[in-house]
Amino acid sequence: MNPRHRRLLIPGLLLALLVVVLVSSLARRADGAEAGPDVVSRMTDARITESSGLAISVKHDDLAYTINDSGSAPIVFAVKISTGAVVGATTLTGSEPADTEAIAIDGDGELWVADTGDNQERRTDIALYALPEPGPGDHSVAPTRYPLTYPSGPTDVEALLINPRTGAKGVVTKGLFAGELLALPRTLSADRPNRAEATGDDMPALVTDGAMSSDGRYALLRTYSDVHLYDARTWQQIRSAETPPQPQGESIAIERSQTSFLIGSEGTGSALLRIPLTFPTKPAPLPEPTDDTPAKDATSDSSEPGNSGFAGSTWLWAVGVLAMLAAIASAASRRT
């Protein structure tokens, strides 16, 4: 190789690398703009001021349920997803929840409300409430109350996970630096406290809600700023991505199509945002359900808001191109 050409080789390769990174970055931004979040509707009903949980109906199309958190009446609102209009209100009677933070529906159509909020970490009256999915219309229902206790004493919890396939249940603590997955007993008792058990699985910090895929293979956990996808068999994180800015992101629910999920926020007139959802193409076979930790066979979901959250892939591509160019240059030098 001509010495002058050899001197120009490295700068040329670096220039090629920069071009690859720039083009890839622009392409990724374009993809994100095309597949970004969609504002589906706004919940403008004056009674919904602190929406703190979201669950998609398993019996009715275009219907979701939400509930306000602390200081509000114990009412489950049925909301038309496409318009945000309230089409039903179910009052929970016979009990006085203090801080409802999550809501979920199991595979049998039972609606579960988690009265588990505890910012001061001193409550001794936390519980889950269960009632048949109410649907549209106004109702009054006396739900079944299942008291809970935690292995390390009072703690704040805002995420309830229910495996639609097996019925296994778990909660995620809202730690400032990290959360923890706690498994609930397979069979809950209404007559005595149900002790949650530590699983040893670490979760993200400040988890405000969670949701499971319909087959129980994956779980989505949201914080104020991100969404995290977990494999529910191993509880290893698969990937994560930023969520669109919201005043106070508190809720998440996977839609029945399993190709998108909704996120919501506290505040009056809060928006429901739809974000595209994809799953791993070849998930490992799901093990048979067991009687131990409900979370181990409980959830699975994968979200890629705007195909973001994978910034490293650009650099991997760029390094690959650089290596290819270097190999070509080396081969040319040897021939010379």
Alpha-beta content class:
alpha+beta
Q: Please report the distance between the alpha carbons of the first and last residues.
A: 5 Å
According to DSSP, the number of beta strands is 22
Number of structural units classed as domains: 1
Q: So how many helices?
A: 2
Radius of gyration: 24 Å
Q: Write the CATH fold name.
A: Neuraminidase
**Helix content percent band:** 10-25%
Unreliable stretches: 13-35, 291-334
Elements, N to C (H/E): HEEEEEEEEEEEEEEEEEEEEEEH
Strand order within the widest beta sheet = 2-3-4-5-9
Detail the topology: elements first, then pairings.
Elements: H1 3-34, E1 38-43, E2 51-56, E3 63-68, E4 75-80, E5 86-92, E6 102-105, E7 110-115, E8 127-132, E9 137-141, E10 144-149, E11 157-162, E12 169-173, E13 179-183, E14 194-195, E15 197-203, E16 209-212, E17 218-222, E18 226-231, E19 236-242, E20 249-254, E21 260-265, E22 270-276, H2 312-335
Parallel strand pairs: 5-9, 10-14
Antiparallel strand pairs: 1-22, 2-3, 3-4, 4-5, 6-7, 7-8, 8-10, 11-12, 12-13, 13-15, 16-17, 17-18, 18-19, 20-21, 21-22
Helix pairs in contact: 1-2
